[in-house]
Structure formats: structure tokens, C-alpha cells
Q: What sequence folds into this?
């Protein structure tokens, strides 16, 4: 099997047979203990006293960990050191752990946790964005991204409108909840196996908490049962807790959060509040906008600053705003600390941009798709209108071409007419149609994260061991990397053993995030493989009596370019290289070229390139209930030259459906004490198979021009961008809601639950609920 | 009484004598290092823990059903045959359900995959392959498209009659009374009543789709459980011309299949009632006994004037469904009394329909469920009317004021508007995490208007 023939996930057979092993499923070592938290029943409270004696007296209980047990730093904050691992004197959100019971079994730990007595003094709590904004409760100073003089143009505008938008959060709902286990070996090395997207950071935080150098911690990640950003930083506290418990008890210790604990304790996609003021002309061309974004950061900073910044540099989506002032703040609330989630603020920013476009279209009575097209970044032919508000040109802008293709292939115009005719006939069943674009910047905004390493060993039998810094969470990174290595070395995939991600193999790695996993790690693996080829080629050249520069590695054989019939087996060359005392182990390293970013100024060239896509969705909305049905979806997405097509299609389809969940059925609700009410799949509803339209057409865009960037095998990152194709569902619902009346503005809550849609229908009908 | 309980796991007999009876099969499998069966929620809502269990009907025909192992207490497993994902492949040769998922790129993170495999395995064995086969399985990665493709591949393959299907042909013995610790599984009603009389604190447990959630989370339920899933008398479904009598232990899956086409109100509701794994275990009697105000079945039974047949040590009696629900989670059952069956009259002259509105349209708990049954004369005068709702009061309830308004009058637009307005006022529902009260009230009126528009042209 060569890289080209990989048609499914490299672990697919392990998945379907149940043999693929996850963090909490390894054969447990002798004497493994479990932990369970003592949770605070307040969103904000002072801890007055804690008495664990009754718990400690129970059989099977080994320890009750409190802040006082931490030998290093009681902090897991990845950017700002504001995140105690165990609450010390202050409870900052409902359910926060104030102690952890360590016991023989999880059930014993859970029962013992109920016996830990804690006295609290309840404090006033801020439980949502409006409350935090009213109280001016924020993390960190405000940030801006500015171009031109938005205020002056707004003041003199031909047309102007204002609006507000509340955007709901989203639970990751990875099927495998947070899981880690730790043990300490005879040399005092702490071994942590964690379901983490960022083993290096997990390693660092464990060392930081234990107060030991990083070289005494090894963090491994086998595979994750889903990540979606939810295990980028949020895996760290649970790895740190089991490491601390192992440190304290000298026993191996495990954790796998129950679903309810996972949903209560871990952060989610940031809810946002947006306020906008926008100027445009008679032709609906954007002239200026002021956009204020407030992200609900939750109780600690976590990754909120870069999430907010990505939102701020994606409010434009695919549209040119000649003058734009984006102001951002992070609200500090007494809720779980919100975190990375596929799109990383981009979806919230783009939702605001699309809200603005729709508002303009309806105000002027123009079709929304026309207003979108008119405001597109125009590509290199119109360089001035191809500049983003943060100073980077939209390099290799394929969007207008892609858009035109999708309009045609989805039969958009004819369906528009058919829907209008249907709606004229059906007072209570309105259909809606929308086409929306995606432009998404690829690279970590933070320039230093854009680097990666790899370690490739060739053994004397011709088998290859592959290590890289990326983690596998289902996205198919390992599959793509196998394809890259097989193709670069000219050998079959079957020769290559992908190793679990481990910080003692490749150090100082970045999170597998920002859609950059295969771009970064693929290049690092390719570099390592090329180093090996460069060492083996002279050996082959000597054997084949030719020039090393002419050596070709292909199909497990090695030959001179002009003499393909006279070849060496790869195995034999490996043996010959070993015999010649040449190293068969190589590291590879990559850093993305040309990136610069000034977070203070909000300017630079943060993205190596952009991913593009567009989507057409058609819905039907019931006027009696607000229930909608998605009838048909057409997606066209740009993955460059796909490395493994089945993997890329999986990312596109899966991302779309996850985005659709965020914008429709997934709703987080808390009670007035700050307790999450939707902490189980019985109350928090992610899409099921029945929510996916039977007519679901997905195509990969074939670009007509060569890109100016050198991405691995001319591919493009695909992890996040397709999620935002789901904005078409929201806009199609809005289109259908509009058909119930004649309103010049259609306010639609996000998520658009049946209740929210029904309320929107009432509004456009001018009726009360 | 079998005091040495075993069950058959992947073809091998396994002793359960020392097992904790209320521990879930899922947790037990993990302790046995059978980690292919995954815990995604332990609530019966994600399907990652789906296993196949053999179910033998009153005619002696055996089939596999897909069930959530997180909701199966070990006590319910005693004497049963269960297959987990580990059993399907023969060495390197995958089962067609596994191979189809591989070929269609149906796995990404893989954590939900064994559950999908088991649902598709059962669907393959039973030749029931559609979206409904996996509607109780959540996948967060794929967007379901490749799973749908795999389902289609399997549907096209001829039913192979493989070793699993062949194994079902072997006659099974009728289940015997079993006890695993405090978990009793009697086989007759009289035995069940005697157990209850001996220990009044004992709880009935039917399909364990409700109590199973509590047990799964280690919450105490009752000192003793009396399981009803082996009582043959409770599994009888008797279809007559004038009425259908459904044994309390008949599963919703069986109701859906066997009564298809008889009651439009049931046909409307059952596809959306719950996922396959739940419907395979949940029973008519269990749904009534648990008396949830948001149960989807109760409004239908209210609309169709069902009768609940109960039996206690002092004898049998019938309770009209309208008198059955007393208060929040409280029924007219006497202490120690057991629901044995429900009778639904068949009235061809009724126009009936059911509606369910939820945040998600598949496998979700209702915001409001409604069921309507009306009869008219030739002038569209209302001769009979039942408007029944779930989700808008502490109990499933009929809108009796609106029924009174409608009865005897011609249902024209003006009357419909009056009825809709009255329905909005008739109930005082709660606001909760599913929806606000105002929306629930609006739905009470609108669903009736929708019914009139769509079913009474």
C-alpha cells in the first residue's frame, strides 16, 4: 500500500474491532488508584474550612489532595498564571474542585468525596456575559485591530445600521472524556499518559505543579477519542492531578472524567456578545464598521486572548471592509474557563460578519448572496481590495472562482426561484436557501507555535519507526503523515510503524491545533526522511555505479533515474548503509516561513495561507413550531491537493455537522446558581444521523492556478475551516424565517433552536409569542 | 429459582455469583478488560456502549437486539446471551458490519465506532438497515455521512445467514426465575407480587431505561429490585378488532413493529420516541409506572382512552388512563400493585395524530408532546374530542376546558382560533433548560392548529 492508496483512517481496523486502545484502557499497572473531586456547590465563594478526616477514615482511601499538597506551583494557566489546579481559598465557578480524593477505586473515591466537609462563604457571582459587562469584569486590557478611520466614515455614512448579536457556546462532546494516568519510575521520572492535544504543554504543567525540571516528566498520547480543541489545554489539570496523586502516594493513579464532570468542569467554545455599527453605500458596498466583541472567558484566562484575536481577524470573513475598527474584550465570569474549540474564535467572528452582510441586504432589499459577492476580497487583480484589516493580503484568493463553481453546481438560481414559488403557496411551511463563504487563516496567530519536529528511525531489517510531535484525535493526522513518509521514502506504508506521540521522542512541540497538524508535522517528517535519503543515496549510487543525485526511491526499491530496471531492494540498501557505518536515524524540523504578528498593534502577516470554501443549505421551517428540517446541503471546499481524500472529506463533512450543531440544536443552559443544567447527552443535544440531510453533496475544489506557498505536498489544512460552512444553515433558516413576513431585519438567536426560530418568526410576523 | 447465575458472553458461560447486581454490564466489561465497549455517557444516550443481546419472543423465535450496556444492571444480564464488539471478527476477518465501516471511512476518532458496529451488526442480522439502525449512536467526528454509506452497503448485501444468525436457530429454554443478590427476576406475575409483598420497599424494574440511569451512576434506588423482563404474561400482545391489549412488558420496539398502521397516533410518535437501543428495552408498563410528565406515550394513551390493567395481591382492577396520573411522578397504583397491560380501543372514526417538539428532532426528550383524537359528523361538528399533552404540567394531561369548548360545535376557523387561544391559557408550564413556558404555551395551541390544518383538510 503506498500513500496514494490510503482510503481510510490508519487505525480503522482497530476502531471497528475494539482493539484500538485509548488512555484509560491500557492494562492497568498493579495498585492503580483513582481520583474523584470534591466539588464546590457555589459559583463564587470563599473557602473557610476543609475537613477531610471522615473521608480519610474510609477503607480504600489513600489521600485527600488539597492545594497544600502541591510541591510546586498551584497553577495550570497556559498563558497567564491565574489558574489554580486545586482551589485554595476561593471558588471561582460552580463545581470547581476544592480537593481530590485518591482511593483504590473510583466508586470509593466518589463516596469518600461526599464526606469531605467544606465551609464556604458565598460571594456574588457573575453568571453570563451581560452581567460581566455590566459589572465591567474583564480579563486583561482591551485589544484592537484597526484600519482606516471607521468613526469618520460612519459619521458621514450614506446608509448606516447598528445591531447586536449573542452567540452561544458549545461543548466539545468528544466521545472520550478527559483521561490521564501517571506513574513514577525508579529513577523518579514521572510518566504521564494523557488524552491531550498538547503533550509538551501537559509535560510542562505537570513539571510546574510538581516543582521539578521538565526533563523529569515524559508525556505520551496514544490517541484521543476526539479533541476538537477541548484537549488543548483542558487536558492539563487532569494530567497534573494524577501526577500529583502519584507523587503523593507513590502509586500509579488514573482518571477518566464522567460525562457530567467533564461537561461541568471543562471549558467550552466561548459565548460571544457582539455590537456593530456599519456604513455602506447604495450598492451595499461596505464602507466602514465598528465591531465590538466580548468573549466570555470564564473564570480564568486560559486561551481566551488568542481565541478573541482570531475572532477579531475573522470578522471580515471573505469581505473587504475599507475602514474597520474591531475592539475586543474578555469577560471574566464565574463559569468554567472557556477554551479552544475548532475554529478558535474564527466561527464567532465570521458569524458577526455574516450577520452584518444579511442585515445590509435586507435593509436594502437586495439578495444576500449578491451582497456577499459584491463585497468579496477581489484577488490579486484588485490588490487594494484584497487586503485584510490586519495588513495581510488574501494570498492565493481562490474564493471568487470557487463561489461561482458552487453557485452553478448547486443550481442556486433555479432553486431560489422554486423556493420563492413554494413559499407563496405555503403560509406555514417556508423554505429558505443561503450560500455562504469561508475564508480561514491557516497558522497559529502566535508565530512561535509554527514549528514542528520529527524523529525517524530506519532499522536494519528495513522497517521504519516514525515519531512526530502531532497527536491523533481522529482527524487522520497519522494517516496523512504515513502517506508523507511512505511517499518521501518511496516505500510502502506497511513498512512504517507510527509511534505514539511522546515528549521524549520529539521535544518542545506545539499543540495539534489551528488546522496545522499535517502542515507542520508533515514537513518535519518529510525533512527527516529527506535527510535519510541523502545519507542512503550515496550508498546506493556506489552500488549501482551512478550519481547519488540520480537515485530514485520508489516502490520499496532504489534505482538510477535512467536505469529503472537495475534496482536495489530498499532492505538491501538499508543493510548496506548500516554496514557503511552511516546513521539510519534522523530528526526533521520545520518552521513556517514568512510569518510575523504584532499582537499589540493587531497587524502583521499571521497566516501562511487561507483555506476557502462555500456552502449552500436549504431548509424548511414550520411556522407552528419553529422546527426546521435541513433538506439539502452542497459543500465545495478547498483542500489543495488532497493527501488522503477520504480523510479530507471526513473533516469537511464532520466539521460541517459539528458547526450545524453549534448553530442549531446545541444549547448550553445554566441555572441561577451557575450550575450547568445541560451536562449530559440527555439535555445537551449534538446532531444525530437523523439531522444530516439525505441530500448531502460534498466536493473538493480543484484550483486552476498554482499556489504561491509551499505547503506539504501542496495540500491545505482542513481541520477547522469546514465547521464554518455551517453558517449557511443559519442563514438559510433566517431566509425561511424572513418569508413569514416582510420585515427588513430578521433577528435570529444563535443557536437557532426551534424555540429561537419560533420567536424569530413571531417577530417578523409582528406578533407576540 | 436459579441461585447460580451465569450469562453467556461472546459464546462463553460466565459466572455472575459474586457480581454486584446493580453494577452496569458496561462497568463490569471494563473490569474484565473488555475495553472495546466504550463509556461515552453512562446515561443511555450516546450508544458507545451498545452490545447485542439475544431476545426470545413468546413464539420461541430468537433475535439479536441492540442495547445500551450502561443501562443493563448485571442482575438483568443473568441468564442472557450477550455479544460485544470483540466477538465479531474471526481473526483478521472482519464482520461485514465492521468491514463496511472500514471501507466507507466510517471511523475517525474511533471511540463511538464499536457502538456503531454493534448497532449495524444487529441491523444486519435482522435486515433492518436504515438511519434508524444507528439513531441511538452519537458520532462527533464523521458527520454520519460515511456511516450512512456503510449502512447502505450492508443493506445491499444479501443476508448471509452467518454463524451469528445460524446460532439463533438453536431453540432456547424458557427463562427461569433468577436471583442475583438483591436483584430478583421472577417469571410469573404471582411470583413478582409475592416478592413485592414480602419486601414492600422493593422497586419494580422493567426495561431499566429509566432506573438504569440512576444505577449506572451508582445512585441507590431500592434495597431490592424485582425485574419484570422475564414475565411471559406481561409480554403478550393481543390484537382484536375492537381493541388492542398490550402487555406491560412489551417493548416499544415490538409495539412499533407489531402495531404499525393500526394507530396513526402511535405511528406518528414511535419513530421519534427514543433511539433503537432504548425502544428495545423500554416497555409500555415501565413508561406508565415511571409517570414522567414528559413521557411521549402518555398523551397518546390519554387521547385514545386507554385502560390500564393492574393487579395486586387483593386482585385485579382496571383504571381509566385519565385517572391514572395523580401528581408529579405519582400514579393511581396501590402499594404493591403492578401494571400488567394496557388496552387501547380501536375506533376507526377518529382522526388522530401525535406531535413531538424537541430541541433535536431525533432521540430527544420532548419540550411538548401532544396527541389529538377527534370525531366529526358530516357537518364537521365535533362529536368526540381528546386533546392530550405532555411537557406542560406536572403530569401528562388533557386540555379538558378546550375539549368542552369544542364538543358539539362545528370546527370552523373562528372556533379553531378560540380553541388555540384557550389552549395557550389552559396550562401553566414551567420554564426549564429545554424551553421557556411561553414557548410551551404557544405550542399547546399551535400543535392543535397544525393538526387541524394538516390532518383535517
A:
Amino acid at each position: 500500500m503506498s500513500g496514494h492508496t490510503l482510503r481510510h483512517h490508519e487505525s480503522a481496523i482497530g476502531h471497528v474491532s475494539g482493539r484500538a486502545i485509548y488512555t484509560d484502557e491500557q492494562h492497568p499497572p498493579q495498585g492503580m488508584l483513582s481520583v474523584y473531586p470534591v466539588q464546590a456547590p457555589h459559583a463564587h465563594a470563599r473557602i473557610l474550612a476543609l475537613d477531610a478526616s471522615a473521608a480519610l477514615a474510609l477503607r480504600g482511601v489513600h489521600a485527600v489532595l488539597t492545594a497544600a499538597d502541591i510541591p510546586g506551583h498551584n497553577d495550570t494557566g497556559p498563558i497567564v498564571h491565574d489558574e489554580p489546579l486545586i482551589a485554595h481559598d476561593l471558588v471561582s465557578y460552580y463545581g470547581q474542585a476544592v480537593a481530590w480524593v485518591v482511593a483504590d477505586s473510583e466508586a470509593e473515591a466518589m463516596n469518600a468525596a461526599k464526606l469531605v466537609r467544606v465551609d464556604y462563604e458565598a460571594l456574588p457571582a457573575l453568571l453570563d456575559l451581560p452581567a460581566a459587562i455590566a459589572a465591567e469584569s474583564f480579563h486583561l486590557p482591551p485589544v484592537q485591530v484597526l484600519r482606516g478611520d471607521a468613526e469618520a466614515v460612519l459619521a458621514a455614512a450614506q446608509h448606516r445600521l447598528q445591531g447586536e448579536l449573542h452567540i452561544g457556546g458549545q461543548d466539545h462532546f468528544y466521545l472520550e472524556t478527559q483521561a490521564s494516568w501517571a506513574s513514577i519510575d525508579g529513577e523518579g521520572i514521572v510518566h504521564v499518559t494523557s488524552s491531550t492535544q498538547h503533550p509538551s504543554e501537559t509535560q510542562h504543567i505537570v513539571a510546574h505543579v510538581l516543582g521539578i525540571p521538565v526533563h523529569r516528566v515524559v508525556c505520551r498520547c496514544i490517541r484521543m477519542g476526539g479533541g476538537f480543541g477541548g484537549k488543548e489545554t483542558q487536558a492539563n489539570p487532569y494530567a497534573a492531578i494524577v501526577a500529583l496523586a502519584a507523587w503523593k502516594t507513590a502509586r500509579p493513579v488514573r482518571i477518566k472524567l464522567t460525562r457530567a464532570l467533564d461537561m461541568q468542569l471543562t471549558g467550552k467554545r466561548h459565548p460571544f456578545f457582539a455590537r456593530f455599527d456599519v456604513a455602506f453605500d447604495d450598492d451595499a458596498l461596505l464602507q466602514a464598521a465598528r465591531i465590538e466583541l466580548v468573549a466570555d472567558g470564564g473564570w480564568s484566562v486560559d486561551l481566551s486572548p488568542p481565541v478573541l484575536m482570531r475572532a477579531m481577524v475573522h470578522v471580515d470573513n471573505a469581505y473587504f471592509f475599507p475602514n474597520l475598527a474591531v475592539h475586543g474584550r474578555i469577560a471574566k465570569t464565574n463559569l468554567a474557563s472557556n477554551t479552544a474549540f475548532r475554529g478558535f474564535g474564527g466561527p464567532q467572528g465570521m458569524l458577526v460578519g455574516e450577520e452584518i452582510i444579511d442585515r445590509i441586504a435586507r435593509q436594502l432589499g437586495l439578495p444576500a448572496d449578491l451582497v456577499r459577492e459584491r463585497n468579496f476580497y477581489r484577488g490579486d487583480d484588485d490588490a487594494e481590495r484584497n487586503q485584510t484589516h490586519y495588513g495581510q493580503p488574501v494570498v492565493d484568493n481562490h474564493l471568487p472562482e470557487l463561489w461561482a463553481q458552487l453557485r452553478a453546481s448547486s443550481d442556486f438560481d433555479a432553486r431560489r426561484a422554486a423556493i420563492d414559488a413554494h413559499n407563496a403557496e405555503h403560509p406555514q411551511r417556508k423554505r429558505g436557501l443561503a450560500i455562504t463563504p469561508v475564508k480561514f487563516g491557516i497558522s497559529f496567530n502566535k508565530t512561535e507555535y509554527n514549528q514542528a519536529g520529527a524523529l525517524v528511525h530506519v532499522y536494519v531489517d528495513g522497517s521504519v519507526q516514525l515519531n512526530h510531535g502531532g497527536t491523533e484525535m481522529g482527524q487522520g493526522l497519522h494517516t496523512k503523515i504515513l502517506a508523507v513518509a511512505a511517499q518521501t521514502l518511496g516505500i510502502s506504508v506497511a513498512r512504517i510503524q507510527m509511534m505514539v506521540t511522546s515528549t521524549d521522542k520529539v521535544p518542545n512541540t506545539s499543540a495539534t491545533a489551528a488546522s496545522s497538524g499535517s502542515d507542520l508535522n508533515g514537513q518535519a517528517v518529510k525533512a527527516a526522511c529527506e535527510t535519510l535519503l541523502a545519507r542512503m543515496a550515496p550508498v546506493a549510487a556506489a552500488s549501482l555505479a551512478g550519481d547519488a543525485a540520480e537515485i530514485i526511491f520508489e516502490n520499496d526499491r532504489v534505482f538510477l533515474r535512467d536505469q529503472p530496471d537495475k534496482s536495489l531492494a530498499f532492505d538491501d540498501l538499508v543493510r548496506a548503509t548500516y554496514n557503511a557505518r552511516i546513521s539510519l536515524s534522523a530528526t526533521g524540523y520545520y518552521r513556517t516561513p514568512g510569518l510575523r504578528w504584532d499582537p499589540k498593534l493587531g497587524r502583521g502577516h499571521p497566516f501562511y495561507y487561507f483555506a476557502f470554501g462555500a456552502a449552500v443549505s436549504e431548509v424548511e421551517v414550520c411556522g407552528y413550531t419553529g422546527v426546521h428540517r435541513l433538506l439539502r446541503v452542497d459543500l465545495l471546499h478547498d483542500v489543495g491537493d488532497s493527501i488522503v481524500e477520504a480523510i479530507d472529506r471526513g473533516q469537511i463533512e464532520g466539521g460541517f455537522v459539528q458547526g450545524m450543531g453549534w448553530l442549531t440544536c446545541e444549547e448550553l443552559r445554566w441555572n441561577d446558581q451557575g450550575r450547568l443544567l445541560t451536562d449530559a447527552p440527555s439535555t445537551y443535544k449534538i446532531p444525530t444521523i437523523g439531522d444530516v440531510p439525505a441530500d448531502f453533496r460534498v466536493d473538493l475544489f480543484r484550483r486552476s492556478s498554482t499556489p504561491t506557498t509551499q505547503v506539504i505536498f501542496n495540500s491545505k489544512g482542513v481541520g477547522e475551516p469546514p465547521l464554518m460552512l455551517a453558517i449557511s444553515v443559519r442563514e438559510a433558516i433566517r431566509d425561511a424565517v424572513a418569508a413569514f413576513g416582510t420585515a427588513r431585519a430578521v433577528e435570529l438567536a444563535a443557536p437557532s433552536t426551534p424555540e429561537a426560530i419560533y420567536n424569530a418568526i413571531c417577530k417578523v410576523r409582528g406578533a407576540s409569542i | 429459582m436459579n441461585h447460580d447465575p451465569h450469562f453467556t458472553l461472546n459464546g462463553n458461560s460466565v459466572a455472575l455469583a459474586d457480581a454486584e447486581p446493580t453494577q452496569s454490564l458496561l462497568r463490569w466489561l471494563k473490569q474484565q478488560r473488555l475495553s472495546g465497549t466504550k463509556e461515552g455517557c453512562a446515561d443511555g444516550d450516546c450508544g458507545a456502549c451498545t452490545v447485542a443481546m439475544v431476545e426470545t419472543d413468546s413464539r420461541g423465535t430468537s433475535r439479536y437486539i441492540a442495547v445500551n450496556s450502561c443501562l443493563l444492571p448485571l442482575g438483568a444480564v443473568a441468564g442472557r446471551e450477550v455479544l460485544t464488539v470483540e466477538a465479531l471478527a474471526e481473526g483478521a476477518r472482519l464482520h461485514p458490519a465492521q468491514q463496511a465501516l472500514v471501507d466507507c471511512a466510517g471511523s475517525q476518532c474511533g471511540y463511538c465506532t464499536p457502538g456503531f458496529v454493534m448497532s449495524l451488526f444487529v441491523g444486519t442480522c435482522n435486515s433492518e438497515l436504515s438511519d434508524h439502525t444507528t439513531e441511538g449512536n452519537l458520532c462527533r467526528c464523521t458527520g454520519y455521512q460515511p456511516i450512512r454509506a456503510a449502512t447502505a452497503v450492508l443493506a445491499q448485501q444479501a443476508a448471509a445467514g452467518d454463524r451469528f444468525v445460524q446460532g439463533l436457530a438453536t431453540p432456547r429454554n424458557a427463562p427461569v426465575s433468577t436471583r442475583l443478590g438483591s436483584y430478583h427476576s421472577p417469571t410469573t406475575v404471582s411470583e413478582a407480587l409475592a416478592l413485592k409483598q414480602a419486601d414492600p420497599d422493593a422497586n419494580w424494574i422493567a426495561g431499566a431505561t429509566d432506573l438504569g440511569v440512576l444505577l449506572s451512576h451508582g445512585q441507590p434506588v431500592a434495597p431490592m429490585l424485582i425485574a419484570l423482563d422475564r414475565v411471559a404474561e406481561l409480554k403478550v400482545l393481543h390484537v382484536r378488532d375492537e381493541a388492542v391489549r398490550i402487555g406491560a412488558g412489551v417493548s416499544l420496539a415490538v409495539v412499533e413493529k407489531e402495531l404499525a398502521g393500526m394507530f396513526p397516533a402511535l405511528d406518528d410518535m414511535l419513530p421519534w420516541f427514543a433511539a433503537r437501543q432504548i425502544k428495545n428495552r423500554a416497555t409500555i408498563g415501565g413508561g406508565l409506572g415511571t409517570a414522567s410528565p414528559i413521557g411521549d406515550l402518555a398523551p397518546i394513551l390519554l387521547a385514545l382512552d386507554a385502560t390500564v390493567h393492574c393487579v395486586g395481591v387483593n386482585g385485579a382492577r382496571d383504571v381509566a388512563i385519565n385517572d391514572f396520573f395523580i401528581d408529579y411522578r405519582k400514579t393511581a397504583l396501590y402499594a404493591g400493585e403492578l401494571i400488567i397491560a394496557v388496552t387501547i380501543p380501536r375506533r376507526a372514526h377518529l382522526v388522530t395524530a401525535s406531535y413531538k417538539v424537541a430541541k433535536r428532532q431525533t432521540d430527544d426528550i420532548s419540550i411538548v408532546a401532544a396527541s389529538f383524537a377527534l370525531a366529526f359528523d358530516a357537518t364537521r361538528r365535533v362529536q368526540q374530542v381528546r386533546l392530550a399533552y405532555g411537557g406542560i404540567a406536572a403530569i401528562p394531561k388533557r386540555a379538558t376546558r378546550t375539549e368542552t369548548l369544542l364538543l358539539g360545535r362545528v370546527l370552523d376557523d373562528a372556533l379553531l382560533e378560540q380553541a388555540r387561544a384557550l389552549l395557550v391559557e389552559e396550562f401553566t408550564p414551567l420554564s426549564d433548560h429545554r424551553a421557556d413556558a411561553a414557548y410551551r404555551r404557544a405550542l399547546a395551541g399551535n400543535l392543535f392548529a397544525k393538526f387541524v390544518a394538516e390532518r383535517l383538510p
Q: What stands out?
A: Chain B touches chain A through 79 residues (CB under 8 Å).
